[in-house]
Amino acid sequence: MTKVKHHFTNKSNNTCLPTSKAIIYNEVMSDNTLTNGLISRLAELNKKGFSKTEMARVAGVSKQAVSSWFKTGRISKSSALAIADAAGVSVPWLLGEDVGEKDGLKPDEQRLLELYRQLPEEEQQNMLRIVSLRLKELDELYAKYMGRRIKGDTE
């Protein structure tokens, strides 16, 4: 399967089940949306040939636990990560968020990554240095002008 780096969206939060296992859920989702989103994505993976038995093996849980995911729409964080890795999908996608199946990136981020990957390796490294320097410049400007503003406000 494809190796996927998991990117949780800014809106993803962790909550805990009574068993103290973390579940992941988006703050704008109602419980019903979360349940339906996870269940539909699990069902989609199941239709593509990822059996419940295989899900249980990959996540290190019982078949009954997997059946519970399909009924309740709740999954532990570790199980979600394991299933997403094995299926080659992102965790936000698995949880029903409106993101790309493979990467969980926004369209602008996908485009930037596509352009970056077209560059020769040396140019990729140059781009990383340029972006790092620009962020450093912005941090310095922010510190300089915010420092003046704070000092100016007290005078």
Q: What's the end-to-end separation, in Å?
A: 62 Å
As laid out across the biggest beta sheet, the strand order is 1-2
The dominant shape is elongated
Listing every helix as H and every strand as E from the N terminus to the C terminus, the arrangement reads: EEHHHHHHH
Low-confidence stretches: 10-34
Overall mean pLDDT: 78
Strand content: 5-15%
DSSP strand count = 2
Class per helix and strand makeup: mainly alpha
Number of helices: 7
Rg calc: 21 Å
As for the number of domains, it is 2
Provide the CATH superfamily of the largest domain.
lambda repressor-like DNA-binding domains
So, CATH architecture of the largest domain? Orthogonal Bundle
The percent of residues in helical segments reads 55-70%
How is the main sheet built?
A: 2 strands, antiparallel
User: What fold name stands as the CATH topology of the largest domain?
Assistant: 434 Repressor (Amino-terminal Domain)
User: For this structure, what is the CATH class of the largest domain?
Assistant: Mainly Alpha
Protein name: Helix-turn-helix domain-containing protein
InterPro entries: Cro/C1-type_HTH, Lambda_DNA-bd_dom_sf
Organism: Salmonella enterica I
Domain HTH cro/C1-type: 46-94
Outline the structure in words.
- It is a single chain.
- The protein has 155 residues and is mainly α.
- The protein contains 7 helices and 2 strands, in the order ββααααααα.
- The chain has 2 domains: 12-94, 434 Repressor (Amino-terminal Domain) (Orthogonal Bundle); 119-154.
- A two-stranded antiparallel ribbon has the order 1-2.
- α1 crosses α3.
- The longest helix has 34 residues, at 121-154.
- The protein starts with 11 loop residues before the first strand and ends with a helix.
- Residues 10-34 have low confidence and may be disordered.
